[in-house]
Amino acid sequence: RFEVIGKSPLTGIYGDSNAGGFFGPELKFAGWDYIVFTGRAERPVYLQILDDRVELREAGHLWGLTTSQTEQALQEQLGDAKTRVAAIGPAGENLVRFAGIQVTSQRSAARCGLGAVMGSKNLKAIAVRGHSRVPLADPSRFKQLTKSFVERLRQNPVYAPVHEHGTPGITAMMNALGRFPTKNFQMGSFAEIDAIDADALHDRAFVRHMGCYACPVACDALYRVPSGPYAGTELHSVEYETLSSLGAGILNPDLDSILHMNKLCDDLGLDTISAGRCISFAMELWERGILTAEDTGGLTLEWGNIDVSIQLQKMMAQREGFGALLAEGVRRAAETIGRGADASAMHIKGMEIPG
């Protein structure tokens, strides 16, 4: 795993975001432990790392692309499908305060708005390929420890359910405990939990298990929507947090649409937690009569309105219309709206609350 660290555009203080996948190990195989970016490029660039060769290169042709398009373009341009990419999407380019960084291509260093920090530096992506072995002080002892750790993991009673379902496996339990944020935290349980929990996810869309680099747990999975209006939507890394924020949080029991919005967030470079909280914040203000169609540009923000939720995701990423206000995050949006809107802004120090 690896960490992205910077000053959060949401909180103005230290922010860090963590991600798995294959980018971190590839950076190590290239011989590097960390990268520090200072200043700002005059025009869009990406950083190419090929073992000990490090170069900032022109990225004007990548600006405006989604994160998955960016990864594909760089792999084709560099002629190596094993190039690992960390990239921002339109949300990061447009300095959405909760923009994330997508990594090869559906692992998310999403929290704290660090994708906007990359965007502020005109840094579109980092592409890394390494061919070195990681030196070990004591290879035989390392192998022995690794084998021991793997055996202990697999004997742990938590191993089987985590491997089978990943973090969605705790959804039903949290709901039963009254700790599953619903309707913008107005409630702790979702009446239609059976439609979006781990069993529903597995039965509806599961294709196969997946895992991050060398992980013995392999809690990830590939999902594909088989039919309906979102048929063909394919993604992995579906998390408990997203089932909360884009499901129960906005009173949406349509699992297919949650998967579609999850993939859309990944492509646009939006944190699913903050994006969902911004939408549920706006829906609560609509319910309370604080927002009207005049404020929203004609959008009807009723609970569970899937089409409007999808539209708002795109508008936030592009900073269009009412979406530009939500792109500031719930604390700043509430300050701008006034009229008691702050009571519906679920945040801590400016960052939207996770599940």
Q: What is shown here, in short?
A:
This protein has 355 residues and is of the alpha+beta class.
Percent of sequence in beta strands: 15-25%
Major beta sheet, specifics?
A: 6 strands, mixed
Helix content percent band: 25-40%
Give the CA-CA distance, first to last residue: 22 Å
Give the low-confidence spans: none
Order of helices and strands: EEHEEHEHEEHEHHHHEEEHHHHHHHEE
DSSP summary: helix tally = 15
Shape: globular
Secondary structure tally: strands: 13
Tell me, rounded to a whole number, the average pLDDT: 97
Q: Which structural class should the secondary elements be placed in?
A: alpha+beta
Order of neighbouring strands in the sheet with most strands: 4-3-8-5-6-7
Could you walk me through the main structural features you see in this protein, from its secondary elements to its overall organization?
Helix content is 38%, strand content 16%. By secondary structure, it is an alpha+beta fold. The strands form 4 sheets. Strands 4-3-8-5-6-7 form a 6-stranded mixed β-sheet, with helices on both faces. The chain has a 3-stranded antiparallel β-sheet with strand order 9-10-11. α10 runs parallel beside α13 (306-318). The longest helix has 17 residues, at 139-155. It is globular. The model has no long low-confidence stretch (mean pLDDT 97).
